[in-house]
């Protein structure tokens, strides 16, 4: 058995900055409401025609991560791509990355776990490496939310929160099992699937043939629906539980945390967790103020920025944690 470790990180966000003020021109909202409830000041939304898509942004982030890893693209043995906003209904973006990077015909797996997507993708990569099946795995989280949001007052409870962007990590084999990814912890609770959901197009409730036949401009099933308060209440409980689960598994206490990178869902959620674990400000990394919630991309973007800013050092205990639609949630405990 081996461990895996992260040896390269990269991120890419589109140039186009959309401020809370910009949103108030599209819908009945305002900077004070968004800032107070979420902490978000601005987000990036891809400009139509820019060429930025979930797959192309993922490729840009991946190129940086591969270069920083100091390996060649042909050393990549497997690709895992997490997103809820693929360029196409199928195939998923993993194969687009394989093609765009000119990587040989390695496997490419798409992960559909929304805000927990990157944590799930890391767990998959880690376990492929732990068992010895692969040596170098490229993990990407990327999202284009902006083309799929209801940017009217009807959709304001959801659309002000989400942003576009991509992050990537290269994982490699680590023979010292006291280093690298120590453990991953994954959970789901499908009874709450419809509390945070995008129904259409789907083969269960909103068939493509029905949508075409109805041709109804008031159909809201194309837009994400979120029961915000219910999601919030579950998030704070599950984040805490799954971080604790990871610490306990590794005989660590909360004082051992050098850096917590929570999924950037809402600054209030991150602050609640910070308080609960008694962590100083320099031990929790947040960038939701700049990017909003970028779902599967949020952890790799935040991890990359924290690393670039010198906030993660060799030997640090780094904790990743996420919660989102499904419900799904998870954590990753890393000895950097
Ligand atoms: N601007 C102004 N007013 C608004 C807006 C807006 N953008 N959106 C909603 N409102 C109004 C509502 O209409 C409501 O008005 P009313 O009281 O007159 O009916 C009022 O503000 C309160 O609305 P709530 O939805 O109750 O607001 P809440 O305090 O719950 O905040 C929020 C909403 C920010 C979405 C919060 O519930 C939240 O962050 N939830 C968790 C999100 C999360 O963690 N998601 C998981 C990850 S996402 C994923 O997995 C894809």
- Work out the count of structural domains: 2
Assigned CATH architecture of the largest domain: 3-Layer(aba) Sandwich
The chain-level structural class is alpha/beta
Query: What is the 3D shape?
Result: globular
Tell me the helix content.
25-40%
The succession of helices and strands, N to C, reads EEHHEHEHEHEHEEEHEHEHHHEE
Q: Main β-sheet, in a few words? A: 5 strands, mixed
Do you know the CATH topology of the largest domain?
Answer: Peroxisomal Thiolase, Chain A, domain 1
Q: Give the C-level CATH assignment of the largest domain.
A: Alpha Beta
Radius of gyration: 19 Å
Find the count of extended strands (DSSP E, 2+ residues). 13
What can you see in these coordinates?
The chain has eleven helices and 13 strands. It has 336 residues and is of the alpha/beta class. The protein has helices at 20-24, 31-38, 54-69, 93-100, 117-130, 156-159, 208-214, 228-249, 267-277, 288-291, 298-308; strands at 3-12, 17-19, 42-44, 78-82, 107-111, 136-143, 165-174, 180-188, 196-197, 225-226, 259-262, 317-324, 328-335. It folds into two domains: 3-174, 3-Layer(aba) Sandwich (Peroxisomal Thiolase, Chain A, domain 1), CATH 3.40.47.10; 180-335, Thiolase/Chalcone synthase (Peroxisomal Thiolase, Chain A, domain 1, 3-Layer(aba) Sandwich). Bound molecules: acetyl coenzyme *A (ACO). Residues 29, 33-34, 37-38, 114-115, 156-157, 160-161, 196, 228-229, 231-232, 235, 265-266, 269, 293, 295, 324-325 line the site of acetyl coenzyme *A.
């Amino acid at each position: 058995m081996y461990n895996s470790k992260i040896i390269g990180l990269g991120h890419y966000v589109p140039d186009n900055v959309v401020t809370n003020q910009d949103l108030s021109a599209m819908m009945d909202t305002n900077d004070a409401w968004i800032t107070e409830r979420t902490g978000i000041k601005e987000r990036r939304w891809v400009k139509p025609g820019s060429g930025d898509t979930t797959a192309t942004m993922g490729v840009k982030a991946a190129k940086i991560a591969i270069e920083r890893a100091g390996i060649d693209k042909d050393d990549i043995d497997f690709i895992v791509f997490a997103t809820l906003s693929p360029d196409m209904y199928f195939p998923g973006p993993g194969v687009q990355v394989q093609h765009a990077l000119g990587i040989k015909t390695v496997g490419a797996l798409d992960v559909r776990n929304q805000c927990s997507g990157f944590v799930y993708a890391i767990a998959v990569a880690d376990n492929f490496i732990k068992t010895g099946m692969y040596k170098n795995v490229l993990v990407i989280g990327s999202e284009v939310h902006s083309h799929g949001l209801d940017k009217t007052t009807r959709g304001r409870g959801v659309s002000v929160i989400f942003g576009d962007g991509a992050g990537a990590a290269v994982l490699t084999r680590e023979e010292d099992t006291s280093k690298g990814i120590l453990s991953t912890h994954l959970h789901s609770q499908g009874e709450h699937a419809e509390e945070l959901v995008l129904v259409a197009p789907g083969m269960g409730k909103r068939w493509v043939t029905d949508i075409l036949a109805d041709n109804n401009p008031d159909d809201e099933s194309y837009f994400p629906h979120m029961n915000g308060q219910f999601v919030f209440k579950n998030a704070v409980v599950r984040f805490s539980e799954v971080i604790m689960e990871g610490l306990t598994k590794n005989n660590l206490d909360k004082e051992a945390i050098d850096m917590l990178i929570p999924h950037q869902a809402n600054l209030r959620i991150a602050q609640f967790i910070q308080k609960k674990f008694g962590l100083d400000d320099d031990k929790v990394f947040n960038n939701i103020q700049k990017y909003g919630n970028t779902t599967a991309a949020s952890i790799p973007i935040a991890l990359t920025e924290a690393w670039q800013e010198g906030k993660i050092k060799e030997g640090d205990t780094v904790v990743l944690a996420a919660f989102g639609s499904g419900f799904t949630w998870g954590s990753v405990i890393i000895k950097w």
